[in-house]
Design brief:
Chain A: InterPro entries: Ald_Fedxn_OxRdtase_dom2, Ald_Fedxn_OxRdtase_dom3, Ald_Fedxn_OxRdtase_N, Ald_Fedxn_OxRdtase_N_sf, OxRdtase_Ald_Fedxn_C, Tungsten_al_ferr_oxy-like_C, W-dependent_AOR. Chain A: Keywords: 4Fe-4S, Iron, Iron-sulfur, Metal-binding, Oxidoreductase. Chain A: Residues 5-208 form the Aldehyde ferredoxin oxidoreductase N-terminal domain. The complex is a heterodimer of chains A (627) and B (154). With 627 residues, chain A is α+β, with helices and mostly antiparallel strands. Chain A folds into 3 domains: 8-205, 4-Layer Sandwich (Aldehyde Ferredoxin Oxidoreductase,  A, domain 1), CATH 3.60.9.10; 239-427, Aldehyde Ferredoxin Oxidoreductase Protein, subunit A, domain 2; 438-625, Aldehyde Ferredoxin Oxidoreductase Protein, subunit A, domain 3, CATH 1.10.599. In chain A, 38% of the residues lie in helices and 13% in strands. Chain A has 24 helices and 18 strands. Chain A has a 6-stranded mixed sheet with strand order 2-1-6-3-4-5. A 6-stranded mixed sheet of chain A has the order 8-7-12-9-10-11, sandwiched between helices. A 3-stranded antiparallel sheet of chain A has the order 14-15-16. In chain A, a hairpin with a 3-residue loop joins strand 10 and strand 11 (183-185). The radius of gyration of chain A is 23 Å and the shape is globular. Chain A starts with 7 loop residues before the first strand and ends in an 8-residue tail after the last helix. Chain B has 154 residues and is of the alpha+beta class. Chain B is globular. Chain B has helices at residues 17-27, 57-61, 88-92, 118-122, 133-148; strands at 3-7, 29-30, 38-42, 46-50, 67-69, 76-78, 99-101, 106-108, 128-132. Chain B has 5 helices and 9 strands. Helices cover 27% and strands 22% of the residues of chain B. Chain B has a two-stranded antiparallel ribbon with strand order 1-9. In chain B, a hairpin with a 6-residue loop joins strand 5 and strand 6. Classes of the chains: A alpha+beta (627), B alpha+beta (154). Chain A binds chain B through residues 69-71, 98, 105, 157, 181, 207-212, 215, 218-219, 226, 282-293, 295, 297, 308-309, and chain B through 10, 13-17, 20-21, 23-25, 27-34, 41-45, 47, 122, 124-125, 154. Strand 13 (210-211) of chain A pairs antiparallel with strand 2 (29-30) of chain B.
């Protein structure tokens, strides 16, 4: 009998067309706790190093966690884990919506996808059953059309569809997987991986429940969470949506603008959350089971950038299709967001590739000949929207942009390298790492998937407020008494930030509720109460933290096998230059090496290589990952 | 004055928490398919909780007298000892808020949780409320009129 988990893994081989249901081993699952932790173990053990992410041998794991689909207020998530074709690293792309919960209600915690179908297919998972069905008629359709067609064909409006659009079919290296029309497993190119496997979509629905071991205790723990979240320190996020951050960040001088040339956008008011909510919001939308409802549902009813109603845009998108490109037209941004959703594109990498192209054009590194006579000028809203179309279809200059900033820079030469803003090939998200040489800068440098603001995501909030997030009982030192140097203090603190954040990743929880302190967020202690009541296991916060450390180390080992070491934990050159204007003028990152030294030391990793020492891996029971 | 359940779809974000609380309260598991409140979430932008209004049509058609009105809450409740799961009530319900629970093989419907409905207690945005009957009636009139006019604001 399983409580909390569905207890099953579904294996789908697209080459042979065979599917297999495997029972999960309780003690092994508990060791990793689930979701990306267990997915890391699966991919590390089942996929040897050096497999081309777009080859049939590459595997993909769709992972839910123990809180996915439960009443846990952050429990709407699933994560897609794979080796990224954009970066060559470990990648996990998280998404909300209904897909994760419905996969679990269908009876599966994990889906492992292997091989490559001879012709386009989609996979239909429902109530413990799985069918691989032809999708030739869906190939070439966008995400919205695909979703509508499948709802009609399967005659079930309650299904959740995760599909790729034209971008994934065409192999755009940062193509996304979009579920429920407007929720993206965005980063790292899972759309291209699906495309390479001839896999158009996965459809799920289920009517099974999640059994709760101790229903009364569980209800009490959830009621406690609901009460604590009344004091949540980031209460403005639901009110305005994540896009509310545009005004806040701009007033602090940390709104990335013009390809990170600066961090202050004079016209931020025109693309702010306040403007979006006043002029374009239809309603608020929540992911499955979430009491937060940070999602916006918007449309542009008339004009040249008209769009039907669609989820978004989120903060990241507004900055990336807006300020990063110098664009101040919110209608164009909503249109760009819509196009990214229907074509299946990561809005962050899309925006950054466009901004990088604009800077290269400004510097004469891209000429009218290459752009087919289209000037790529900062702030040109129509050009931004046109480029989104061209990228998705790999047309003209779009074929260059579809490769992402790292590969574009390699083709455009050393002068372009100066302007290439990525870590390990992943374009930076919309958070400025320079002001005060933050913990966020360290996170960008060391995160397994490259420049990442999400996995885990306490770094920016730590930089703002030094919240303890329930880590005090584990000795969160601020400032650490024995360390005088501030940069080294930040390195040590990131150990706590990363491991606490990783707890969300292994539970399948959205990160948003994990920031605060006792009485104002879901702390590791409260997660332990929730998980214990759900599963009937006596789980402590310390056990969650150890499982998180296991997961974090294993992802590092995955990357090590692909050749990534300390030499790759670096920031774009741009960040050693000062922010030129705005409230954070003068800030730059000067202390990365010191932060890295302290962080590796605190993690038990070798300072020279930046890799986990064998004794650390033994301590965590990860002997199989010792090289 | 007694209370009734009232829904304001303009406040619903489609989170389905009411369904989860309902199934947890009634059956000790989390399963929106075993809920006695139903959230219809469709595109574009439709999020509507559908609830039993305890009209009592089902009482009249039950051949075994298994549906009764609770004297304290005025809820229409299923007597599980009498119900045979024949489904006559499901057929007659104009709102589709009755179902046969597959596990127990009897009719399942909202019983107002004996006067403390879990869905209303836990709705994060006040889209489902358990309110004084006069206030609720006024709200129902408003929503009904607006729906007829096709003007429910989203």
């Amino acid at each position: 009998m399983w409580y909390g988990f569905a207890g099953k893994l579904l294996r789908i081989n697209l080459t042979s067309g065979e599917t297999k249901v495997e029972e999960l081993d309780k003690s092994e699952l508990r060791k990793y706790m689930g979701c990306t932790g267990y997915a890391a173990k699966l991919l590390y053990q089942e996929m040897p190093g050096g497999v081309d992410p777009l080859a049939p041998e590459a595997k993909v794991v769709l992972a839910t966690g123990v809180v996915t689909g439960t009443l846990c207020p952050s429990g709407g998530s699933y994560e897609v884990c794979f080796r990224s074709p954009l970066t060559g690293t470990w990648n996990q792309a998280r998404s909300g919506g209904a897909f994760g919960p419905k996969l679990k209600y269908a009876g599966f915690d994990f889906v492992v996808i292997e091989g490559k179908a001879a012709d386009p297919v989609y996979v239909y998972i429902h109530d413990g059953q799985v069918e691989i069905k032809p999708a030739k008629h869906l190939w070439g359709l966008n995400v919205e059309e695909t979703t509508d067609t499948l709802i009609r064909e399967l005659d079930d409006p309650e299904i959740s569809v995760a599909a790729i659009g034209q971008a994934g079919e065409n192999g755009v290296l940062y193509a996304a997987l979009i579920n429920d029309r407007g929720r993206a497993a965005g980063r790292g190119g899972i759309g291209a991986v699906f495309g390479s496997k001839n896999l158009k979509a996965i459809v799920v629905n289920g009517h099974g429940g999640i059994k709760v071991a101790q229903a009364k205790k569980f209800a009490e723990a959830i009621e406690k969470a609901e009460q604590w979240l009344n004091n949540y320190p980031f209460g403005s996020i639901p009110a305005l949506g994540t896009v509310g951050l545009v005004s806040v960040n701009n007033s602090l001088g940390i709104l990335p603008t013009k390809n990170f040339q600066t961090a202050y956008f004079e016209k931020a008011d025109q693309i702010s959350g306040e403007t979006l909510n006043r002029k374009y919001q239809i309603k608020r939308r929540a992911c499955y089971g979430c009491s937060f409802a940070c999602g916006r549902y918007t449309s542009v009813p008339t004009g040249k950038f008209v769009t039907p109603p669609m989820e978004g845009p989120e903060y990241e998108t507004v900055d990336m299709l807006g300020a990063i490109c110098g664009v101040d037209d919110l209608e164009a941004i909503i249109k760009g967001n819509y196009l990214c959703n229907v074509y299946g594109l990561d809005t962050i990498s899309t925006g950054m590739s466009i901004a990088f192209a604009m800077e290269c054009y400004e510097k004469g590194l891209l000429t009218d000949k290459e752009t087919e006579g289209m000037p790529l000028r900062w702030g040109d809203a129509e050009v931004m929207v046109k480029l989104v179309e061209k990228i998705a279809h790999q047309k003209g200059i779009g074929a260059l942009l579809a490769q992402g900033v790292k590969r574009m820079a390699e083709q455009l030469g050393p002068a372009a390298e100066e302007a290439a803003v990525h870590v390990k090939g992943l374009e930076l998200p919309a958070h400025e790492p320079r002001s005060e040489s933050k913990v966020l800068a360290l996170q960008y440098a060391v995160s397994p998937r490259g420049a990442c603001h999400m996995h885990p995501n306490w770094a920016s909030t730590w930089d703002f407020g030094q919240l303890d997030c329930g880590m005090k009982e584990f000795g969160l030192p601020w400032p650490p008494a024995e360390i005088q140097d501030e940069s080294s203090q930040k390195g040590v603190v990131y150990r706590y930030v990363a491991l606490q954040g990783e707890i969300s990743e292994i539970l399948g929880a959205c990160i948003f509720y994990s920031w605060g302190g006792e009485g104002s967020c879901i702390t590791p202690q409260l997660y332990a109460e929730i998980v214990s009541a759900l599963t009937g296991w006596d789980v402590t916060a310390a056990e969650l933290l150890t499982a998180a450390e296991r997961s974090w180390n294993l992802k590092r080992c995955f990357n090590a096998r692909e050749g990534f070491t300390r030499k790759d934990d670096k920031l774009p050159r741009r960040f050693s230059q000062a922010i030129p204007n705005g409230p954070s003028a003068g800030a730059k990152v000067e202390n990365l090496d010191t932060m890295l030294d302290a962080y590796y030391e605190a993690m038990g990793w070798d300072k020279q290589t930046g890799l986990p020492r064998p004794e650390k891996l033994r301590e965590l029971g990860l002997e199989f990952a010792i090289n | 004055m007694s209370k009734v359940l009232i829904v304001d779809p303009t406040l619903c974000t489609g989170c389905h928490r009411c369904e989860m609380w309902c199934s947890l309260t009634k059956y000790g598991e989390i399963n929106p398919s075993r809920s006695n409140v139903y959230v219809i979430r469709r595109e574009p932008g439709v999020d509507v909780p559908v609830i039993c209004i305890h009209c009592g049509l089902c009482i009249d058609v039950c051949p075994l007298g298994a549906l009764k009105r609770d004297r304290t809450t005025d809820a229409v409740v299923v007597d599980s000892d009498l119900c045979s799961g024949c489904g006559a009530c499901v057929k007659v319900c104009p709102y589709g808020v009755l179902r046969i629970d597959e596990e127990m093989d009897i009719a399942a419907k909202c019983d107002l949780c004996s006067g403390s409905p879990a869905c209303a207690d836990h709705c994060p945005h006040g889209a489902i409320r358990y309110e004084d009957v006069r206030k609720a009636a006024a709200k129902r009139r408003e929503l009904w009129a607006m729906a007829q006019a096709g003007k429910i604001r989203s």
